[in-house]
Amino acid sequence: MIAIEQLAYTYPDGTRALDGIDLRVGKGESLCIAGSNGAGKSTLVNHLNGWLLPQEGAVRIGELQVNKKAVEEIRKMVGLVFQKPDDQLFMARVWDDVMFGPANLGMDEAKIRAEAERLLRIFGLWELHDKPPAHLSQGQKRFAAIATVLVMQPQVLVMDEPTSDLDPRNRRKLIELVNKLPMTRITVSHDLDFIWDTCERVCILSKGKMVADGPTKKLLSNQQLLEANGLELPLRLQA
């Protein structure tokens, strides 16, 4: 589903955020990208739907190469939930935000309206669908942002720190939801207990390089590996 070859990216200030990343992700796979702050995680996933374009190397989604010509089609395939919900919610009402993407992609309105209502009910936001996003709590904004992506029914779902605003009950609700999703999932998170529950595979980045790639429970049980890369054991293993 996803093929990344020798991907490198340098920011204008000279920061080498990615340095020769190779990665393959199969259809329907659930993958976590882990690493300390500044490891290059967000930079990597921002290449998956064309928010960033490769400076060196290549990224392919299905049969499409990620480049300027293919960005519109790529964004129909890959849905990205940003780290900050306020970057994703900008309309006057929650409902308008959820419907914005499908309207711009020319999707069937009647079908999408039903799906939008279903998602908002799942997230406990239906009673708030006429409210401005600014009136929501941070956790409610997080769920609204996820709904704006899921409503477009992408083939790949990318989530950047999806549990950062959630209380324990809503965190559990998100775990139950994402484990039922059929699409390929890529998650960036410092919440290694969430990753333990939702991802079958983990890749660890450090200073823009891939340093480990393997089964979730094997890598997240390796205390030496985690500590060497600015991470700690999941809380369940610390006990």
From TrEMBL:
Matching entries from InterPro entries are given as:
AAA+_ATPase (IPR003593), ABC_transporter-like_ATP-bd (IPR003439), ABC_transpr_CbiO/EcfA_su (IPR015856), ECF_ABC_transporter_ATP-bd (IPR050095), P-loop_NTPase (IPR027417)
- Identify the Pfam families for this entry: ABC_tran
- Keyword entries, A-Z: ATP-binding, Cell membrane, Membrane, Nucleotide-binding, Translocase, Transport
Cross-referenced SUPFAM superfamilies: P-loop containing nucleoside triphosphate hydrolases (SSF52540)
The protein's GO terms of the molecular function aspect are: ATP binding; ATP hydrolysis activity; ATPase-coupled transmembrane transporter activity
Q: Which Gene3D superfamilies match?
A: P-loop containing nucleotide triphosphate hydrolases
Q: What are the subcellular locations of this protein?
A: Cell membrane
Q: What does UniProt give as GO cellular component?
A: ATP-binding cassette (ABC) transporter complex
Q: Please tell me whether the keyword tRNA-binding is annotated for this protein.
A: no
Q: Which residues form the ABC transporter domain?
A: 2-232
Family stated for the protein in its record: Belongs to the ABC transporter superfamily.
In Swiss-Prot or TrEMBL terms, this protein is called Energy-coupling factor ABC transporter ATP-binding protein
What lineage, starting at the top, does this entry show? Bacteria, Pseudomonadati, Chlorobiota, Chlorobiia, Chlorobiales
